[in-house]
Amino acid sequence: MTAARVGHYVHMHISAKADYATRALLELACEPARPLTCEAIASSQQIPFRFLKSVVGELRRAGLVRSQRGCEGGYWLGRPAEEITLLDVARAVDGELITLRSEPLAGLDYPGPASGLPRVWRRIEAEAAAVLGGTTLATLLPSTTDEQLSRRGAA
Questions:
Q1: Which of 93, 86, 104, 98 is nearest to 12 (CA)?
Q2: Cα–Cα distances in Å, from 77 out to 59, 105, 143?
Q3: Whole-angstrom distance, CA of residue 22 vs CA of residue 55
Q4: What is the number of helices (H) and of strands (E) in the chain?
Q5: Contact assessment for residue 74 and residue 3, using Cβ atoms and an 8 Å cutoff
Q6: Tens digit of each residue's pLDDT, the chain (155 residues)
Q7: CA separation (Å) from 8 to 5, 11, 78, 153?
Q8: CB 60 within 8 A of CB 68
């Protein structure tokens, strides 16, 4: 996630990696009893397969997914959906949550009249981290009631 000043607004950029990673994890969270292949996830979520394969590798290294090889293989969540936050996902695939000119905000320091600005950027980062850290995969999953209603509506 990156922030840049655009007009009168701070423009937040969510990377394709963070978006694809979250969507892949949500697919896995919907099927906790069986492994899913990258092919199945890519097809279901309309994510480019090669890109997804790379992203899933990063998620595996971060412990957010686990894998099993072989014809019965695939991927599962590395932890329960209730324990994986969007902050975990963003940090696993992007590292720093918000950067300025590709640098972390932690050591940012400006002289003179701009000296208060880094405090604002860090506050934005802290608030974004609070929202993402307070949102788990489980809270994003559709409820059974929602699924039943949508099936009835389609019938």
A1: 98
A2: 9, 31, 19
A3: 10
A4: 7, 6
A5: no
A6: 655 555 556 667 899 999 999 999 999 999 998 999 999 999 999 999 999 999 999 999 999 999 998 887 899 999 999 999 999 999 999 998 988 888 889 889 999 999 999 999 999 999 999 999 999 999 999 885 454 445 445 54
A7: 7, 9, 41, 42
A8: no
Domains of the chain: 2-150 (1.10.10.10)
Parallel/antiparallel/unpaired status of strands 74-77 and 9-13: unpaired
pTM: 0.82
